[in-house]
Amino acid sequence: MRFTIPQFIEHEAKIIGPLTFKQFIFVGIAGAICFVLYFTVSFTIFLLSCIVLGGIALAFAFLKINNMPLPGFIANFLKYNLSPKMYLWEKKGIKEREFEEQIIIKKEKVAEDELPLKIEGKSRLKKMKTQIETRGK
């Protein structure tokens, strides 16, 4: 039985024209804000704010930094900068000296119970490989 393997699973589907849903939302919200500003503020303020909002919306929709979309990059940047940076590891329930003593005791037990090691020859797979290689020549 043959199965088809999905291709391009890392790409978002283009839903609205050449834009994905997220890209359309970013551009659409900026367009809606500019539409409201057209009727509420003077033309110079409207023009300046639309240029700024349009640039920000286009950056959020299309800009990728290290192959990561800008909203994800900003989220990771803020998460890293707002999280604590010092990591301390402390073993709970046992102190360092007791821990060292337990290690020494375990090493002594292993030394007492240790059996002589057997040294095996080549595995059967390696033997078969060498036999096949030498027969072919």
Word description of this protein:
By secondary structure, this protein is mainly alpha-helical. It is 61% helix and 3% strand. The chain has five helices and two strands, in the order ααββααα. Strands 1-2 form a two-stranded antiparallel ribbon. Helix 1 (21-40) packs antiparallel against helix 2. The protein is elongated, with a radius of gyration of 33 Å.
In short:
With 137 residues, this protein is mainly alpha-helical. It has five helices and two strands.
Shape designation = elongated
- Written as H for each helix and E for each strand, in order along the chain, the element string is HHEEHHH
How much of the polypeptide forms β-strand, as a percent range? under 5%
Total number of helical segments?
A: 5
Number of strands: 2
Characteristic terms for this protein:
single chain, about 140 residues, mainly alpha, two-stranded antiparallel ribbon, 5 helices
Indicate the topology:
Blueprint: H1 21-40, H2 43-62, E1 64-65, E2 68-69, H3 70-82, H4 96-113, H5 124-135
Antiparallel strand pairs: 1-2
